[in-house]
Amino acid sequence: MPKPTSTRFTPPRFTHTHSPGTNKHQGLVLRAQLNKPNTHTNPYVLTSLLNLYAKCDLLDHARSVFDEMRCPNTVSWTALITAYMNAGRVREAVAVARDAFASGMRPDSFTAVRVLTACARVADLGTGEVVWRAAQEEGVAGSVFVATAAVDMYVKCGEMSRAREVFDKMPEKDAVAWGAMVGGYASNGHPQETLELFFAMQTQGVKPDCYTVVGSLSACTRLGALDMGRQAVRTMDWDEFLDNPVLGTALIDMYAKCGSTGEAVVFQQMRKRDIVVWNAMILGLGLTGHGKIGFALVGQMEKSGTKLNDNTFISILCNCTHTGLVKDGRRYFHNMTQLYNITPRIEHYGCMVDLLSRAGLLQEAHQLIDDMPMQANAVVWGALLGGCKIHRDAELAEHVLKQLILLEPRNSGNYVMLSNIYSNSNRWEDAAKLRSDMKVNGVEKVRAYSWVEFSGKVHEFRVGDKSHPHMDQIYQKLDELGMEMKTMGYKPTTDVVMFDVEDEEKEHTLVYHSEKLAIAFCLLTTQPGEVIRVTKNLRVCTDCHTVIKLISRITHREIIVRDNNRFHCFKDGCCSCNDYW
Which parts of the sequence are annotated with region: Disordered (predicted)? Predict the structure, then answer.
């Protein structure tokens, strides 16, 4: 069979036969063949050569070929954009796209998807919107692939209302489109919308993939919605949880952070356990007051041949923090560098500062901050401030607050914590001045609220908010419990009230804290003996902690409260934290 003559149409056919492993020299030889009159003017030939160079990792040559084109068409622009994306140079791909649209290029569906995907990766909203408008003008926006890419772009840019608008207008939605929207709500901190859309997906008969289920489980974790989490689990084959570490980790995390440690033992059934799975289980055990079991799991992990990593030590140090095991914490912190050759990150130092501060070793914690090889962040200083509150060290707290104001001047929690310290020390004028400073600086206190899941709906409760339809019965229930608790010797812990008012008024303020309202609601609406689960956005105060212990004894209920710090599992008048939190 005779060899084909090298014509201007031969090179494209030749380039399609090249693989990524093609010798780069062959590409250069082909380029030399093209240096003939009129050959290099054919955009089809030059685009094929551009693709060849891109596959051979000769991106500069690819760009040179593109620059020779007199009037690059949509295919040529897309080829160059794709070349930059495949090389991991996404920002440059977006820059090329901007040039393309500025030159008047009109996208086809493939180009629109490629550029929207690039914009999503670097969160370039401006360019993404230009592409989406062009796609609409060219009539390709109706493609499920283009519209899904637009949804993903808006999600990655944090524009959830725009993403939802595109999603709702899609003429057809496949599992990927639903997953992009569900995952977007989850990753942008909208757990209720995540679950609403996830369950709407079921009614449309669309089966979720594993990543969509992971998004729904993360939403359940955030809300403490255990029953909804169980429903989400039923949408997948159980074997997928046992064989897929990503799904398994999300499931363990959800069970542990919803206070259902018993169900989290699904860990023992998992057939594939990577380091992330082990770390999630160790951390979950620590958060729910099972630190010693967590330490035992570390031993099992090493015996299984899984090497401890830096995140493992964060889980271990968190365990030490929540159980007050200072000696163990010091030992693990020392061993991670000396035995495991792991350099501590700021998260590890933060755990140690938290551990020492809670234990009352405030000067040692402060010295550790001074000795850190990196600048302390707000989390580290906040841990020390928390210790100052527990141990009522107003002088050190004032110093710490100055550091925190520099780092996060609009975080009201720092001001409130110091105000609490002043109030506990009867420094009412200082507390009042601090509140006045907050107003002057425009810093608003974050309102406390608690929520529970009941009959597939999340119910929120706030102090002073009487909008809930059961509020009269809730108040009556709390009054009944209050009378019974006083016969048991209960006295309100009024020093948590930050205002200099009469004790009677302080007691009234304490009665209707949000977590108490949520618990009373559950007592009214759930069956006797049923476990009560409450989530709160802020730390549980000492008075509420005492009250919930008594309620658990009076009602013979197990009450699990997750605040922004840890889990409290109340049963028979005791708490899993052993009053250490």
Answer: 1-25
Q: Could you give the angle at the alpha carbon of 552 between the alpha carbons of 551 and 557, nearest 5°?
A: 125
202: number of Cβ within 10 Å: 15
Bridge partners, 462 (sequence order): 449
Q: Helix, strand or coil for residue 385?
A: helix
Q: Measure the CA–CA gap between 206 and 167, rounded to whole angstroms.
A: 15
Tens digits of per-residue pLDDT, 177-211?
999 999 999 999 999 999 999 999 988 999 999 99
249/255 Cα distance (integer angstroms): 10
Spatial distance between the Cα atoms of 176 and 262, rounded to a whole number of angstroms: 33
Do residues 572 and 293 lie in contact, with contact meaning Cβ atoms separated by under 8 Å? no
Q: How many CB atoms lie within 10 A of CB 338?
A: 9
Closest CA to 116 of 47, 57, 69, 163: 163
* Residue in 441, 471, 447, 442 with CA at minimum distance from that of residue 459: 471
* 541 within 8 A of 509, measured Cβ to Cβ: no
- Residue 480 CB partners (closer than 8 Å, separation 6+): none
Beta-bridged to residue 571, according to DSSP, are 574
Q: How many Cα atoms are found within 13 Å in the side-chain-facing hemisphere of 551?
A: 30
Q: Write out pLDDT tens, residues 202-246.
A: 889 999 999 999 999 999 998 888 889 999 999 999 999 999 999
Specify the amino acid at residue 19.
Answer: S
Please state whether 505 falls in left (phi above 0), alpha (psi between -120 and 50) or beta: alpha
Return all residues near 216 (Cβ < 8 A) that are at least 6 apart. Answer: 182, 186, 194, 195, 198, 208, 228, 229, 232
pLDDT digits (tens, 9 = 90+) for 504-524: 444 556 778 999 999 999 999
Domain-by-domain residue ranges, the chain?
450-575
